[in-house]
Write a structure and sequence with these properties.
This protein is an alpha+beta fold. It is 27% helix and 34% strand. The chain has one domain. The protein has 4 helices and 11 strands; from the N terminus they run αββααβββββαββββ.
């Protein structure tokens, strides 16, 4: 009985080893800006079996990586409000800058890049067997006045400037 279990385990591991290596795939990123420049950032993603195992074993956590990415860009503390195996929500205080002048307000978002995420993933034990895609299929930036800017399959977002009248 023990030999049968061992053989089945070995077969399962062999199948996993020859399966095509898919990896973390960013499905969507939504950045919702508040009037004061704070942002709620929602990311939807897919994880492979290996990555889900890493999350389960607390080796890697996509929500923590997202939090870290935004903290390094904003240099402010970021709060993870929700994290699942397929999504994460973080709050970034003062994400955008508010400029006032000539009777109007302009909100300017910072550039956002996920290029550093590749470097982070390369530090994990499973890096050689995965090929992650950090460019969300769709990214939406929603301003307080309802205006939204969308981007398809981009790894980096440029700064976006938007006059907003309150």
């Amino acid at each position: 009985m023990k030999q049968t279990s061992l053989v089945l385990l070995c077969c399962a591991l062999c199948l996993l080893a020859v399966m095509p290596a898919q990896a973390f795939v960013a499905k969507s990123l939504t950045i919702t800006l508040e009037e004061n420049g704070d942002a709620q950032i929602d990311m939807q993603y897919e994880l492979t079996f290996v990555e889900q195992t890493a999350v389960f074993l607390r080796i890697a956590d996509p929500a923590d990586e997202l939090k870290s990415a935004f903290e390094s860009n904003s240099h402010r503390p970021v709060t993870v409000t929700r994290a699942t195996s397929s999504s994460a929500t973080v709050i970034v205080p003062a994400f955008a800058t508010i400029h006032e002048g000539n009777g109007k307000h302009t909100i300017v978002t910072p550039p956002v890049s996920f290029e550093k995420a590749q470097a982070v993933i390369n530090n994990y034990w499973f890096a050689p067997i995965v090929s992650p895609d950090f460019s969300p299929e769709i990214t939406t930036v929603i301003f307080p006045d309802g205006f939204s800017a969308t981007f398809d399959n981009v790894l980096s977002l440029p700064p976006i400037s938007r006059p907003v009248f309150y």
